[in-house]
Amino acid sequence: MKVLSALAFLLVVTDAAAADQLWASGSPKGIELLWSPPQDQPLPKHYTIRRAQSGSGRWTEIATTAIGSGDSILAAVVARAMSNDAAARKRALDTLRTLLFGTPRTVAAALGTYLLDTTTTPGTEYDYQVWTGAVLIATIAGVVSHQRNIPDPPAHVSARQRAGCIELSWSTDSVVERGIVAFALYRAEANRSPTRLLQRPLPVTMLPADTVLGCFVRDCSVREGAAYTYYVAALDVFGSEGQPATISTVCRRSALSQPEIARVEQIGEELRIVARTADTVARALVPLIRTSDTKHWRETPFVQQDSILRLAPIVTRADAVAISVVARDGDLWSWSSIPVVVPIPDTTAPARPVYCRFDRDGGNIALCWTPSDDPDVAGYVVESASATDTLRRFVAATFFSIPDTTSTHRSYRIVAADAHGNLSRPTPWMNASLPAGTRPELVAVTPTDHGTLVVWRNLPGTARVLVNRYDDTAATPLTIASLDGSATSYLDRARGSHRAWYQVVALDSNGRYSMPSRRVRSLQAERCIAPRLDSAVYRDGAVVLYWSHGSGSAYLVERIEAGSDDVVVLARPSRNDTTFTDASIAPGATYTYRIRCIGDTSAKEASLLTITVPQ
Question: Please, what CATH class does the domain formed by 7-12+150-250 belong to?
Fold first, then answer.
């Protein structure tokens, strides 16, 4: 194989997840465990490992590990990771994770995060837990003893040619979860055995979580016209190399030259790019765009007609867009053209604002509305119309104050305006007077410990609200409250209010009445009477309770053991149940059972029975 003349790579992976990672694999001696230290606390000095046969749930403590000795650099990092300074501890833990993925067994042994379990039965599946004190930090299930796990092949492997080199890339998503620490790369020419493209595996480097997922390698030791097959295999923390992913490509005899943009034209909302390239083999010219409010290039839908590229309308709030063109022939890409920046006229109208209400403050009325969600909205146009004229005013806020005396004979609507002069659709016309024939909505009349709560929904333009009550003995309503137009509830503290009927009436600023709401009566809550416990019988190692039907729908069955103040809730039976079996009892214990209504915290009306379980 030729000596690799130029090799450049960029490896980017996300940081580990917040949860601690535990990796396991079978070995010739049993099962190997390796885990990362917790990230949200100082570095523990000891760990406890528990094991159970897979799915049994019977956990047994099998070993403890502790921080051991290491070189001076590792010892210094460990000391910082055990400090109480949160910022210094986080930096030290990040460094430890990087070191852990460099030499897993050595660093894990020094951190106390490695165990070789040699007390397992070959071919048996086991579950493991790792604890630090009373905190479970990691768990793994279904590890087969003496059976080595092989990493999966890397996903999304691709190859393309650029400037005489073959560029390889593959996904490094979830490498931390799978315990992948490096990648081995091989190359084979046609009818030849594969050889190492890199003499050593490519190590995984931990970078911040906001970077791009992917691994990128450029092979510039290729020959024009030769066919190559590349193999990419993953290596885990235990040194196991998995099955490789493969991809084949051909190094073409000439690379495409850099295209050029002759001009960019804007016809309506469509952009037209006139591009040229010296290569007749380049059948596809791909446009790339980047708007002024983003940092990344992206492809956009287009139609190609010879050297003219017609781009679909670019929907954006940006003021300008940078355009570049790439020549492509299959997986062969050229360098991109020099970008051209063109302005984008914004013709997209903002979203229509939503009308809220009229708020009255003394002699003024404030017209309020919900702001538009569009980020480039510069303000709002308030249109005021009467029978003789229409006025327009521009405001930046989401309210508009007008004199109360002029509001009753004018209607209003709101239009949002953005920085480019685009106007939204207008809101419906609004008037401070109550529309004829309308009535407020009485939502609920609810009894409380302090009286009867009346809740309603107001009409737009409401200045005052009257609350009327109909007593059982009265033929005409009694107005019990006159409230401000913003009020939506009232508490009637009168004795016997739970037997009354209620309605509300709205008034506008001119004193005109709306239609009254429908009349609603207070609904008394159903009184719950707990069932009576008839008997408690010990049978077949359990206590069986029997009771008669009650008058409620929500009960609790509870138990109190003699000598204890703790109340244990055993069940929530339905109103049709009349029996319950308590199997969680101890021989010789004395229990008191009761059944009570939910919400009756005093349990004064609860039925009680006491029974002593035989030895």
Answer: mainly beta
Q: Which fold has domain 29-144?
A: Immunoglobulin-like (2.60.40)
Q: pLDDT tens, 85-100?
A: 777 777 777 788 778 8
Distance CA 358, CA 247 (A): 68
Contact of 372 with 353, CB cutoff 8 Å: yes
302 forms beta bridges with: 311
Rounded CA separation 218/211 (Å): 20
What mean pLDDT is predicted for residues 231-259? Answer: 86
- Asked whether 213 and 169 are in contact (CB, 8 A), the reply is no
Confidence category of residue 441, pLDDT binned at 50, 70, 90: confident
Q: Which helix (H) or strand (E) holds 73?
A: helix 72-81
Tell me the average pLDDT across 152-168. Answer: 86
- Give the DSSP letter string of 74-120: HHHHHHHHTSS-HHHHHHHHHHHHHHHHHSHHHHHHHHT-EEEE--P
CA–CA gap between residue 324 and residue 21 (Å, rounded): 43
Token look-up 């009467």 returns: 386
What is the pTM for the complete model shown? 0.45
Nearest to 88 by CA among 97, 77, 99, 98: 77
Taking residues 384-404, report their average pLDDT.
79
Dihedral sign, Cα of residue 497, residue 500, residue 504, residue 510:
negative
Q: How many whole angstroms separate alpha carbon 270 and alpha carbon 287?
A: 14
Q: Rounded to 5 degrees, what angle do the CA atoms 569, 570, 575 make?
A: 100
Check if CATH label 2.60.40.10 holds for domain 441-521: yes
Every domain of the chain and the residues it spans: 7-12+150-250, 29-144, 260-343, 354-415, 441-521, 533-612
Contacts of residue 356, defined as CB under 8 A and 6 or more positions apart, other chains included, come to 368, 369, 370
Please classify residue 344 by burial: count the beta carbons closer than 10 Å to its beta carbon, then call 0-12 exposed, 13-18 middle and 19+ buried: buried
* DSSP-assigned letters across all residues of 344-406: ----PPPPPPEEEEEEEETTEEEEEEEPPS-TTEEEEEEEEE-SS-EEEEEESSSEEEEEHHH
Q: Tell me, what's the pLDDT at 24?
A: 94
Instruction: Supply 120's token pair.
Output: 């397992």
Burial (CB count <10 Å: 0-12, 13-18, 19+), residue 571 = middle
Check if CATH label 2.60.40.10 holds for domain 533-612: yes
Confidence of residue 361 (pLDDT cuts 50, 70, 90): low
Whether the per-residue pLDDT at 351 is higher than 80: the answer is: yes
- The CB density around residue 79, as the number of other CB atoms within 10 Å, is 11
Matching fold, domains 29-144 and 533-612: yes
CATH code matching the domain that covers 260-343, chosen among 2.102.10.10, 3.40.50.1110, 2.60.40.10, 3.90.580.10? 2.60.40.10
- For 524-564, list the strands marked E by DSSP: 533-539, 542-547, 555-561
Q: C-alpha distances in angstroms, 482 versus 168, 200, 345, 506?
A: 78, 86, 55, 10
User: Using CA atoms, how far apart are residues 562 and 140, in angstroms rounded to an integer?
Assistant: 42
pLDDT for 211: 40
pLDDT greater than 90 at residue 130: yes
Sheet of 411-418, strands arranged across:
390-395, 377-385, 411-418, 430-431
Dist CA 340 CA 365 (whole Å): 52
